[in-house]
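Memo to structure team: turn this sequence into structure tokens by end of day. - J.P.
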Amino acid sequence: MFGFSKKDRKPPCPIPEQRREWLEHAFDWLVGTFGKDSIRERRVLIPHHTDFPIQYNGNPQTGRDIIARQMEIDPAEIELLFYEEGIREISTGDLGHSIFTTGEKKGDGVKSASGRYMGRQDDGKFHIALEEKKLRKPEFMIATLAHELSHIKLLGEERLLENDEQLTDVNTVIFGLGIFNANAAFTTHQDFHSHGWRKSGYLTQMDWGYVLALFARLRGENAPAWAKHLCKNVKSDFTKSYHYLISQA
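Reply from structure team:
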């Protein structure tokens, strides 16, 4: 009987078909919106002091400025507000109004979101609220800021009429910040009091791998240097996705 050797077989798609279609559609929309050439030429930021010379002291203003410039936003138009863990209500500073942070239920309590995009306020600036405790690790702080500033590019600059959190996550890849958000998607933690895992963002680990592979293919990067900064699991999903995309060419 004739057959194909393993090396002749095309690799399977690493994500469900419906998910693949949505991610490709979202990615293509963003490419059409922000321009293929600019995405190909944009520098990818990595977790290294050359890109983020931050000696973290609890104030993410430096990170805000770097990310804003990377996303082509004037840092002066962004106002950062801060809240403590467990505080659900935040004053917006305009006429005494306040908003409540969204979050996910955890046990009998509610886990607050690490960031909240509040739109353009009366002072003409885009307001973003950040939970202080979750910003102590620089890479997590960068991922949070990248997602919230991504809202400015889509909602604030009126490219979207309605919020789409998953599309907002994909947009961080378009602007060269996907490494941070992908690595923050699923992390483990351990200290003297507890251990476990944390999930951040709106895409799965496999989603991140596929979007980053689409990004690499668009840029013609066969072995991107930035991929070595992906955590082990995301890098594995990225490699599988990239091999699949190559096989479809």
